[in-house]
Write a structure and sequence with these properties.
Layout (H helix, E strand, L loop, with lengths): L33 E7 L17 H5 L3 H8 L2 E7 L4 H10 L3 H4 L19 E2 L8 E2 L8 E2 L3 H8 L2 E6 L20 E3 L43 H16 L6 E6 L14 H5 L5 H26 L6 E7 L32 H4 E7 L8 E8 L3 H8 L17 H5 L9 E6 L13 E6 L2 E6 L5 E5 L15 H17 L6 E2 L13
Parallel strand pairs: 1-8, 1-9, 2-11, 4-5, 6-7, 6-8
Antiparallel strand pairs: 2-10, 3-16, 9-10, 12-13, 13-14, 14-15
Helix pairs in contact: 2-8, 6-8
């Protein structure tokens, strides 16, 4: 790849604290900040004791995430951070900086040349990119793009991947994190979930070492047969990688992508009894333990930074890849069905707020104001240009156009790049679960307004998100002018980026674009 990189040696003043210093270690000449992206799987907006709404909710009282609270005290909370409603689209947007409508990995990926779409009686899904993304051509149904991790590595960063990857299908180049520029890979592969959290179950392997499913977590054999929860095992291995990284005297980029809090709801024994005493069912208590175990991992990494004198020169970004699971297939005991992310509507797989609005925090000592809050919106592809800007990489060339917009002005509180900006989602697929706002739809958010369009029926819904965060009041009949304007912009964008749409089984004809209805 042809890239030109300009990298300043120092980006921002460093705050002096009492954190430990290693006198035997030579001073690093490259002063650029370390960057940790802590990505949680399937974590909803309310799966935390940290309130991202204007008030504390029932769920904020139930769950315990002290390290998220700790991180928020030293950084900025984002109350309107968005991703796609499903894992693969979000992670492919992250690694390529492109909108899901453009990269066309619009549903979850796993096996090569196999679409994961559920069959539908009325609509047929398009021939989407079910093989994922790659940095090189040669694989059908694959989007090709330059990885920002590759650009970080080429500029002098030591790059570490831990946990869930989910960039490409099995037996495609994109399945391996090394392909994306990661020098270290801990337990990342093609699968977007895990067979088991339990060391007693070898994380999804039989006693003779064979995987029991495609979701078996690789590379953690030393913990097999122990009571080490996979979240803890990944954290321990990451700390070993960081111990090694600090000897290199170069900045590091760590992508800590925990498999938690994805199903199965295995209970983490370290926290289970505490949540049972709160009156939770076994099902609910197990879910709560996944959350707290993830939070402990965050805290362990923060402790490592402080102990090793790296806290003042490390950016930490906390994010989730999609909303919390709240569909029929997710909650069997009924109480949380479609309501887990309240006050947001619905959950994972839905283009309502519960499926796409994520808990996000950014800490950057000396740059981001402590205990601050940003109510402006952004989208997952924005991480690409922002992280490169954090690393001082100002000029670079990529194979693909970059749809993401840097949110550095929001961090520095200099201006608002979200004003007048349109965010786009496209899900021309049948995920496999059902619920409000799930399957065969697309959406646009612009300022206060959000339009959701359903391909199969032509139905349109209009919500004022600022006034109606729960999307309870469809205002499409009252504001036909706004519906028309947003429909035109949404349809024009989808055609511009060569987005896809389903077709009718009966006629074989494609469903109309939003501005054709």
């Amino acid at each position: 790849m042809n890239k030109k990189l300009l990298i300043p040696l120092a980006l921002a003043p460093i705050v002096t604290t009492t954190q430990a210093k290693d006198a035997t270690r030579p001073e690093r000449t490259d002063k650029r900040p370390n960057i940790i992206l802590f990505m949680v799987d399937d974590m909803g907006w309310q799966d935390t004791s940290l309130p991202f709404w204007t008030e504390k909710t029932h769920y904020n009282e139930l769950y315990e995430t002290p390290n998220m609270e700790r991180l928020a005290k030293q950084g900025m909370m984002f109350t309107q951070a968005y991703a796609s409603s499903i894992s693969s689209p979000s992670r492919c947007s992250l690694i390529t900086g492109t909108n899901a409508a453009r990269h066309r990995v619009t549903n979850w990926t796993l096996q090569k040349n196999v679409s994961t779409d559920r069959k539908d009686n009325i609509l047929t899904s398009p021939d989407w990119n079910y093989n994922g993304v790659s940095q090189v051509p040669g694989t059908n149904n694959t989007f090709v793009g330059t990885s920002f991790v590759q650009l970080l590595k080429d500029s002098g960063y030591h790059t570490i991947h831990c946990g869930k990857a989910h960039f490409g299908a099995i037996d495609t180049p994109g399945e391996d994190p090394h392909h994306w520029g990661f020098e270290v890979n801990i337990a990342g592969h093609a699968a977007g979930g895990l067979a088991s959290y339990l060391g007693e179950e070898n994380y999804g392997h039989s006693k003779d070492g064979k995987p029991v499913s495609l979701m078996a977590v690789p590379g953690l054999e030393k913990y097999w047969g122990t009571e080490t929860f996979v979240t803890e095992a990944l954290t321990l291995e990451t700390i070993k990688a960081l111990d090694k990284a600090k000897k290199y005297n170069q900045p590091f980029y760590l992508y800590m992508a925990q498999y938690a809090i994805h199903v199965p709801l295995d209970k983490d024994k370290r926290f289970f009894d505490k949540y049972k005493k709160k009156g939770m069912t076994d099902h609910e208590a197990a879910y709560a333990t996944l959350i707290e175990g993830m939070d402990k991992s965050l805290g362990d990494l923060m402790n490592w930074l402080e102990k090793n004198g790296e806290a003042d020169n490390t950016i930490i970004i906390f994010m989730s890849d999609n909303g919390g699971l709240a569909s029929e297939a997710g909650w069997r005991d009924g109480a949380k069905l479609h309501t887990q992310n309240h006050p947001l509507n619905s959950g994972k797989g839905s283009l309502y707020e519960g499926g796409i609005r994520e808990p996000m925090i950014v800490s950057w000592p000396g740059v981001v104001a402590p205990a601050s809050k940003c109510n402006k919106y952004l989208l997952i592809e924005d991480f690409y240009p922002t992280i490169l800007e954090m690393a001082g990489i100002k000029k670079y060339k990529t194979i693909q156009p970059i749809d993401g917009v840097s949110f550095m002005p929001l961090l520095k509180q200099t201006n608002d790049p979200s004003k007048g900006r349109s965010l786009i989602w496209n899900f021309p697929n049948n995920w496999g679960n059902d619920g409000p706002g799930i399957n065969f739809n697309c959406a646009i958010r612009k300022d206060d307004w959000k339009l959701v369009y359903y391909y199969g029926t032509g139905k349109k819904e209009l919500f004022n998100i600022t006034n109606d965060i729960g999307e309870k009041n469809d205002l499409s009949a009252q504001h036909p002018d706004i519906v028309k304007k947003l429909s035109k912009e949404l349809g024009s964008y989808l055609r511009k980026v060569d987005g896809q749409r389903p077709s009718f089984k009966a006629t074989g004809k494609p469903c109309p674009w939003p501005d054709e209805v």
